[in-house]
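Forum > Structural Biology > Help requests

Title: Can anyone predict the 3D structure of ubiquitinyl hydrolase 1?

Hi all, first post here. I have the sequence for ubiquitinyl hydrolase 1 but no way to get a structure on my laptop. I'd be grateful if someone could post the C-alpha cells.
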Amino acid sequence: MAVPFRAKDIALNSEFGHSDVAIVLTQLSYYYSGLSDPQILQCLNRLNEEETNPTSIYEQWISGENVDSNSRAKIITGFSGTNDTQLLLPSHIPQSDLPELQKTDALVVNNLLTPNNENYKSLPKRANSKEILKHIVENESMINVILDVGALFVDGTNHEIAIRSLNMSNKDKIDYDIYFESDSIVVCDRQHQQQSFFTSPASERLDRCLIYLDEVHTRGTDFKFPNGFLAAVTMGDGLTKDRFVQECMRMRKFGLHHWLTFLSPNDVDQQIWTSKRNRWTETIKRFRTNQINTIDILLWVYENIQRKTWDGLNDLAAQSMSYQRKMVAYRSIQWMNEQQSFSEDLQQLTTDSLEAEVLSLMQIYSPWKTP
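Reply #1:
Sure, ran it for you. C-alpha cells for ubiquitinyl hydrolase 1 below:
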C-alpha cells in the first residue's frame, strides 16, 4: 500500500485513513512511478535467460485481462491474525478458522485478566513524553518495555525518547535503550552512542535494557524478553481489540512470566469511565469499585471494534450499491460491434456512474439567508 507520510502515529481519522483513499493513492503511486529502466531490463533479461519459452510468456504479459470477470474464481487467498473484521470481508471470501486455533482468542483474554495485570494509571491532561516517562520510571515495579500503541510519545524522535528514558532510569539497573530507527533495531547506550542491536552487547543483556516500541512497531516485532519483565501499554482514542491484543502479544509470555500495566491519557480515561458507568445496573452499583480494572479496558476495546465494524458495514453497503448501479448502467449499453462504437450510451454511462455528493456546491457555499 502507498504510504502518504512517515510518522510515529497513523492518522486513522484523517482522509488518509479512509480505505478507498488508501487504495486510490496506491494505484496512483504505481501509475505515476511505474517500473524504472533498470527494473524493466532486469525483468526482460531474467525472462530471456531463465524461461524455456520467453516469447509466449511475454505475449501473456502484454495481453489484456479482464480483472472484473466473474469467471475468475479462487484467485484470492489471505491471512489475518485476528477474526474481528470477518464481517467486512467480501461476500465471496469466507473465513476459515483452523480448529486448533479457535480457542486462541479465549486464551489471550484469559491471560489478560490475570490478577498480575490489574495495573492501570490515568495520565494528566496534555502530558508530554517526559511526564509519561516519569510515571513509568516511578512505578513500584520496574518497567522494562514500553508498548506505545496509543502513540503518546509524539513530541520527539525515537532516539530522543531513548535518551530521555535513559537519563531518567536507574543507572545501576539499566545500561541501554532499544528502539527502532528507520525500521532497524538500534541500541543507545548511556554515552548516547547508537549502534545496531545485533552487534551490540545489549542483544545478550536484555535484562539491562529498556525497550521502546512505537505505534508502528507494536505489531510484527518479536523479542525474547527474560522472565519477569513488565511492560507499560499505552492506549489511544478508538483503540480496537485487534490492535490492543497484538500489542500485548509482544510480551510472548504475558499472563505467565510477563506482566502488563496500562496507561491512558485523560480523554481515553474518561471514555473508559463512561463505558463502565453505562454498564452499571442497580445490582452492580452496590458492588461497583472506584477504579478501572482490566475487564473495563477490555469491554471498552470491544465497544470500539463494534463501532468500527458498523462503520465498515455502512461503507461496504454504500460500495455495493454503487457497484450494482454501475453494473446496471454498463449492461444497458447497446454494443454495436467489437470496436464498441455506440452513440449517446457512453454519456449516459458516465452520468449513471457518478457518485452523488452529500452536499452540492450551492448548499456548501451559498449564504444561509438570501435577501
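The mean pLDDT is 81. Residues 68 and 173 are 60 Å apart (CA to CA).
Shout if anything looks off.
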